[in-house]
Amino acid sequence: MKQTDINVTELRPLRVTCGLVTLLAVTLLLTGCSTMGPTVFLHQEYNFAYVERVAVVPFENLSNDQGAGARLTHLFMTELLSAEVFDIVEPGEVVKVLGKYSLPRTDLITVDQAKELGKSLNVQALIIGTVNESTENRASGGPATVVTLDVRMIETETGETIWSATNTEGSRTFLSSLFGTEQRSYSEVARRCVRKIIDTLID
Predict the structure, then answer these.
(1) C-alpha dihedral over 40, 43, 46, 47, to 10 degrees?
(2) Using one digit for the tens of pLDDT, what is the confidence trace for 175-186?
(3) DSSP classification of residue 98
(4) If exposure means fewest CB atoms within 10 Å of the residue's CB, which of 49, 125, 170, 182 is most exposed?
(5) 167 - beta bridge partners?
(6) Where are the domains of the chain?
């Protein structure tokens, strides 16, 4: 049998290529965990064409980031208004009506309260949200900025949840994880998180 000589120098590019492929695969695995997409519930039997006017209740903030609830409520309303799908009650009117109720947390509205709010605000649905996580990092090499938002729509005739979505967005991108480049800003992360949630409702 003829013995084939193997040139060691020919194997080096192959080893380098395999190493890069492995590194890329691991990086994709690590960065992919933060971009899995929203978890969504959609009432299959409900006719969403019935919902014309909605009220966005100020989001409850369960994170350590003071002011995250107000910021993400405002951002959500802005993005929802730009979609031009619903008529949205003015925030001041919502706060005024909510003041009549003793709510320990705005995300724990009862069925009866949802029905009463629907009549008072003349809306077919309430949108309630919770900021579960909101961390900001300004250093490119530090921990990632992360926003986790949980939003649901309650139909005010029955008090039933007809849609809900939870999404987590982070500041790390594929390139920032691989090469240590600059991460997304907090505003970018928050906007991406909100837009992906809204897309599950209006798409």
Answers:
(1) 20
(2) 444 445 556 888
(3) H
(4) 49
(5) 149
(6) 36-202
